[in-house]
Amino acid sequence: MRLKNKFMLLALSSFFVAACAAQPAAKEETLMVSAASSLSGAMDELAAGFEQVNPGIAIVTNLGSSSKLRSQIENGAPADVFLSASAEDVELLVEDGLADVKSVSPFAGNQLVLASSSEIGEAPDVKSMLASFDGTFAIAEPASVPLGGYTKKALEAIGMWQPLEGQLIYAKDARQVVTYLESGNANAGVIYASDAALSETVKNMDKMPLESVEINYPAALLSNSEQPDHAGKFLAYLLSEEGQAIIEEYGFLTAERLQP
């Protein structure tokens, strides 16, 4: 009798194990974040931190220049959150009804840095340094990349846009400017301070005059998001103490340090 009971218990145990194994795993939901390429390093850590406190939600990141990402969204590409290096690109999406105006939140800031792949000599200021520079100079495309537009504005402010025009090499996004410098394909260029802080080979020569350009990164929730609740959670995490610590770690200005 005892032997029979043991067989019954084993049979029941096997049944319950098999039944549990047959249960489908909880479906992981994805949140699509379109982010400016200059945020690439920070996004990896932001995604990991968000996923840790929000199990069951996986971040999928789409990186590119802000104008390219905006164009993708305008053409129906799936996205839940837009992290832009340009307020203008967010404003255009708001005007078209593709982004929620109430959600728009500046979450980071940046500065422009004159950088080089080798020593280019000393000078009392940025203008003097550039006036004597005769090598190739890398910048992002001014017409389509926020970094390029900021760079042109800053160079015009110190009267160095026209003198340098014949030496310019154009990059498709912020990361490519860094690549040109690291590979030696350009002798100098203008990059974000956040990228300069992460590069082991690019030399940070000097910051461009701060008064010449203001660089704020706004976030926005997209109107066609299929995960509006999760998108709101990500925006809250981005603006939280933990999210802002990551932003600062990667060389950006935190939201509280942005100019009003």
From TrEMBL:
SUPFAM superfamilies: Periplasmic binding protein-like II
Lineage: Bacteria, Bacillati, Bacillota, Bacilli, Bacillales
Keywords, ordered alphabetically: Metal-binding, Molybdenum, Signal
Gene3D superfamilies linked: Periplasmic binding protein-like II
One MF annotation (Gene Ontology) recorded for this entry: molybdate ion binding
Family classification: Belongs to the bacterial solute-binding protein ModA family.
Name of the protein in question: Molybdate transport system substrate-binding protein
Pfam families: SBP_bac_11
Leader peptide range in chain numbering: 1-21
Record-linked NCBIfam families: modA
GO BP of this protein: molybdate ion transport
Highest taxon in the source lineage: Bacteria
Positions of molybdate binding: 38, 66, 192
PROSITE patterns (alphabetical): PROKAR_LIPOPROTEIN (PS51257)
InterPro entries xref list: ModA (IPR005950), ModA/WtpA (IPR050682)
